[in-house]
C-alpha cells in the first residue's frame, strides 16, 4: 500500500487543508518515499499545487504523469534521482533544487535548463543567462552541425522514391552517426550534447522525411546572433571559479615564431582566446601552441601566491557505462592537477576549472584515477570515476567526482606519500609510495549506495630509500613493479599468490655514472614505460635521460638470480645539464613521445617513432649518439601584476593519450596548457 493517502496530503499541506484542490503548498519531506509511492491518480487532484517539497526521501525517478499543471517550485534534495527528463511534465516550473542526488551530473543540469523554459533558479543559483544560451545558442549550433552532417554524408544515400524500410534503415544509421560525430562544448557535457543531437536529428528527419517524432518537438525560438557562448555550471558558476583562477597580460614567445596573447583582466573569466601567428614562415613548424595559463592552486585563494609548487596531473579516463559510453572523444579533455592545499579538475580546451577540492592542512603531491563499478539502486550497476589524492599527511582522499563528494580516506602511511598509482587490471588496487621507504598495495573496496567501504592492505614492498616514481610492467602488471627511488631503481615481485606480505626488492639496476662506471647508487626521479618493453628513466647523469629494455635487463637477472643487474640501455636522450632533482618525465605511448621539463621553464619533447621498431628487436643495438629533442617549447613571457615571472621550474609535463593537450605544472603556481597544432 502506498504511504501517501488523501488524509496525509491534507495534513501535510501548508497550511492544512480540507480539500486537495485547494492545496497550494505541500511538504512531503522525510517520509522515506519511493517512486512507487507517488500515485498519479491522487496527485492529479492537486490541480492548484504550486510548491512541492520532496526532499530527504528515496526517489530514484519521477512518474511520467503526475499532472501538476500549476507547479512552480520543486525541492528534491537528498534523494537518489538518476534522471531528470520526466520533469518536463512541469512546464511552469521556475525554481528547482536537487542537490545531494549523487547520480545527477552537470549534464542533467543542462537537460533541465533546456526542458523547462520558465526555469530561473537551479539549486539556488540564477541560471537565466546560461539557460538562454543552452536553449538558443547551443541549439542553433547543434542544429547547424546536424544539418551539415546529413547534407554531407546521408542526403545522397536516400533514393528519390524510397520505401518505409529504406527510411527506417537510414534513420537508424543517421542517428548513430550524428551522435558519434557531432561534437560541441566541453567533454564534461558530452552526454547532454548527444542527448540534444539525437533530439534535433529526430526533429530534422520528421520535418525532412515526414517521420513520426519520438518526443515532443522543441518550441521554436528566436536566436540572438550576438549571444555569447558560455560553459558556466549552475553548481559552480563562473563567479565562484574566478575567485581562484587569475588570467594575466602576457606575451607568449614560441620558438621559432612569436605569438601575442589577447588582453584579459583578472576575474573576467577563465577562457583564453587563441592567438594568431603574426610572423613569416619558418623552416620548422611549431608543433604546439600555448592555450591557457591558470593560477588555480593558490593558498587561501590569494592572487599573490607564486610559491605553491604543482606536482602531479592525470587525465580523467573515459567511463564505459553501456549506452552512456562516450564514442566521440578518444581521450578525455579533463585533467586532475594537484599542488598545495588543493586538487583541481580542468577542462583543457576551455581552461575552465570544473571543480576544486581543498584540505587546509594538506599539501598534495599526487593524484590518480580509477573507474569503479558501483551498485546504485535496485541492485543495478553503474561505472563512476574515482579520484585518489594524497600528499604530506600520508592520507589518501577518495573523491567521487560526479557527486562532488569526498566519500572516504585511508590512513596509508605515517609519513608523506610521494606518488599514487592504480592497477590497470584491478580497479580497486591502489599503490602508495611513501617517505617511510615503503610501497603499499591497498584494496580500496567498492563503496555501497551509502558510501560505506572497507579498505585493506594487501602488500608492503620494502625499499632501501624513498620511492619517488612507480610503474607497473605493462606485459605483467600483476607480477612486477618498478620504482625510481632516492637511492636507485628497483623491481619487486607483487604477485599476490605468494605468501609473503612484506617483500624486499628482487632486483636493483645498474647504470653508467659520469665517469662511465656502473653504479646502483643514484637518484631516479623520472620513470615511465614508452611501450610494453622500453623504460624511460632520468637519473644519475646530468643532461641525460636513459631508454632501456625491461625484458633484456630482467632476463639477465633470471639467468643468474642476481640482486644487482645492469640495465640494457637502448639510447640516451639529450636533456638539460642541470643537477636539480624532481623535474620528472612522462610518456605518450600511443605517439611514441617522451616529455620532460627543465629548470628554465622549457619543455623538451622527443618523438621516438623512428627508433622503437629497431629497439623491439632482440638484437637491437644501442643508438650511438644521444637523441636530440624533436622540439623545445620555451616558457613564454608571462606577466603578473606587471612583472615577468622568472625562475620557473617545470615539475611535471603530461599529455593526454592522443597528444592533443600538454599540461605543464610549474614551481610558481601556474598550470600551463598547450595544444598540439
UniProtKB/TrEMBL annotation:
Domain Leucine-rich repeat and WD repeat-containing protein 1 LRR: 7-200
Cellular component per GO, a single term: nuclear origin of replication recognition complex
Region (Disordered): 215-238, 258-286
GO BP term, pick one: chromatin organization
Stretches with biased composition (Acidic residues): 215-231
UniProt-listed Pfam families: LRR_LRWD1, WD_LRWD1
Swiss-Prot/TrEMBL WD repeat ranges: 410-444
Entry's Gene Ontology molecular function annotations: chromatin binding
SUPFAM superfamilies listed in its UniProt record: L domain-like, WD40 repeat-like
Coiled coil: none
Domain of life: Eukaryota
This protein's UniProt keywords: Centromere, Chromatin regulator, Chromosome, Cytoplasm, Cytoskeleton, DNA replication, Kinetochore, Leucine-rich repeat, Nucleus, Repeat, Telomere, WD repeat
Domain Leucine-rich repeat and WD repeat-containing protein 1 WD: 287-676
Compartments it resides in: Chromosome, Centromere, Kinetochore; Chromosome, Telomere; Cytoplasm, Cytoskeleton, Microtubule organizing center, Centrosome; Nucleus
PANTHER family the UniProt entry points to: LEUCINE-RICH REPEAT AND WD REPEAT-CONTAINING PROTEIN 1, OPTICIN
Similarity comment: Belongs to the LRWD1 family.
Protein name according to UniProt: Leucine-rich repeat and WD repeat-containing protein 1
Amino acid at each position: 500500500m502506498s504511504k501517501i493517502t488523501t488524509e496525509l496530503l491534507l495534513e501535510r499541506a501548508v497550511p492544512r487543508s480540507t480539500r486537495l484542490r485547494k492545496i497550494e503548498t505541500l511538504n512531503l519531506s522525510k517520509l522515506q518515499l519511493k517512486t512507487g509511492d507517488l500515485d498519479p491518480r491522487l496527485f492529479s487532484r492537486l490541480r492548484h499545487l504550486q510548491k512541492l517539497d520532496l526532499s530527504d526521501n528515496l526517489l530514484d525517478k519521477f512518474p511520467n504523469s503526475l499532472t501538476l499543471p500549476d507547479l512552480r517550485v520543486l525541492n528534491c534534495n537528498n534523494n537518489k534521482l538518476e534522471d531528470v527528463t520526466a520533469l518536463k511534465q512541469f512546464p511552469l516550473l521556475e525554481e528547482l533544487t536537487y542537490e545531494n542526488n549523487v547520480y545527477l551530473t552537470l549534464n542533467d543540469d543542462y537537460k533541465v535548463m533546456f526542458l523547462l523554459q520558465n526555469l530561473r533558479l537551479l539549486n539556488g543559483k540564477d541560471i537565466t543567462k546560461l539557460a538562454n544560451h543552452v536553449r538558443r545558442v547551443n541549439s542553433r549550433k547543434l542544429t547547424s552541425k546536424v544539418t551539415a552532417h546529413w547534407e554531407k554524408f546521408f542526403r545522397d544515400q536516400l533514393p528519390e522514391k524510397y520505401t518505409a524500410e529504406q527510411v527506417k534503415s537510414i534513420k537508424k544509421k543517421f542517428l548513430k552517426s550524428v551522435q558519434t560525430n557531432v561534437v560541441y562544448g566541453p567533454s564534461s557535457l558530452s552526454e547532454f550534447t548527444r542527448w540534444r543531437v539525437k533530439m534535433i536529428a529526430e526533429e530534422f528527419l520528421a520535418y525532412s522525411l515526414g517521420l513520426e517524432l519520438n518526443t515532443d518537438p522543441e518550441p521554436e525560438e528566436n536566436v540572438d546572433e550576438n549571444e555569447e557562448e558560455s560553459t558556466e555550471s549552475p553548481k559552480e558558476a563562473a563567479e565562484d571559479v574566478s575567485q581562484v583562477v587569475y588570467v594575466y597580460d602576457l606575451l607568449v614567445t614560441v620558438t621559432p615564431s612569436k605569438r601575442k596573447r589577447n588582453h584579459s583582466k583578472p576575474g573576467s573569466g577563465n577562457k583564453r582566446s587563441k592567438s594568431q601567428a603574426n610572423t613569416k614562415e619558418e623552416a620548422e613548424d611549431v608543433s604546439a601552441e600555448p592555450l591557457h595559463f591558470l593560477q588555480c592552486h593558490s593558498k587561501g585563494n590569494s592572487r599573490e601566491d607564486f610559491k605553491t609548487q604543482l606536482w602531479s596531473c592525470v587525465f580523467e579516463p573515459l567511463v564505459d557505462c553501456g549506452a552512456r559510453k562516450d564514442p566521440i572523444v578518444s581521450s578525455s579533455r579533463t585533467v586532475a592537477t594537484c599542488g598545495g592545499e588543493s586538487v583541481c579538475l580542468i577542462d583543457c580546451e576551455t581552461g575552465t576549472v570544473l571543480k576544486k577540492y581543498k584540505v587546509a592542512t594538506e599539501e598534495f603531491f599526487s593524484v590518480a584515477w580509477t573507474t569503479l563499478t558501483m551498485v546504485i539502486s535496485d541492485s543495478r550497476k553503474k561505472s563512476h570515476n574515482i579520484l585518489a589524492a594524497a600528499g604530506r599527511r600520508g592520507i589518501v582522499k577518495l573523491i567521487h567526482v560526479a557527486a562532488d563528494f569526498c566519500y572516504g580516506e585511508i590512513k596509508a602511511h605515517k609519513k608523506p606519500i610521494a606518488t599514487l598509482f592504480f592497477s590497470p587490471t584491478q580497479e580497486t588496487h591502489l599503490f602508495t609510495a611513501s617517505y617511510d621507504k615503503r610501497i603499499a598495495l591497498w584494496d580500496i573496496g567498492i563503496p555501497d549506495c551509502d558510501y560505506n567501504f572497507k579498505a585493506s592492505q594487501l602488500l608492503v614492498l620494502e625499499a632501501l630509500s624513498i620511492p619517488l616514481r612507480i610503474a607497473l610492467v605493462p606485459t605483467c602488471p600483476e607480477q612486477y613493479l618498478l620504482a625510481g627511488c632516492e637511492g636507485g631503481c628497483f623491481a619487486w615481485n607483487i604477485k599476490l599468490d605468494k605468501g609473503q606480505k612484506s617483500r624486499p626488492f628482487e632486483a636493483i639496476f645498474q647504470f653508467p655514472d659520469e665517469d662511465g662506471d656502473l653504479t646502483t647508487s643514484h637518484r631516479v626521479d623520472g620513470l615511465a614505460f614508452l611501450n610494453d618493453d622500453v623504460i624511460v628513466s632520468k637519473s644519475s647523469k646530468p643532461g641525460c635521460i636513459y631508454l632501456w629494455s625491461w625484458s633484456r635487463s630482467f632476463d639477465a637477472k633470471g639467468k643468474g638470480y642476481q640482486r644487482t643487474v645492469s640495465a640494457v640501455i637502448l639510447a640516451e636522450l639529450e636533456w638539460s645539464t642541470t643537477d636539480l632533482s624532481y623535474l620528472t618525465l612522462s610518456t605518450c605511448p600511443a605517439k611514441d613521445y617522451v616529455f620532460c621539463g627543465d629548470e628554465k621553464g622549457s619543455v623538451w619533447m622527443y618523438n621516438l617513432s623512428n627508433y622503437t621498431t629497431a629497439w623491439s628487436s632482440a638484437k637491437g643495438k644501442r643508438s650511438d649518439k644521444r637523441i636530440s629533442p624533436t622540439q623545445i617549447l620555451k616558457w613564454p613571457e608571462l606577466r603578473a601584476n606587471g612583472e615577468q615571472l622568472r625562475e620557473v621550474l617545470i615539475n611535471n609535463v603530461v599529455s593526454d593519450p592522443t597528444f592533443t593537450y600538454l599540461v605543464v605544472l610549474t614551481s610558481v603556481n601556474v598550470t600551463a596548457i598547450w595544444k598540439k597544432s
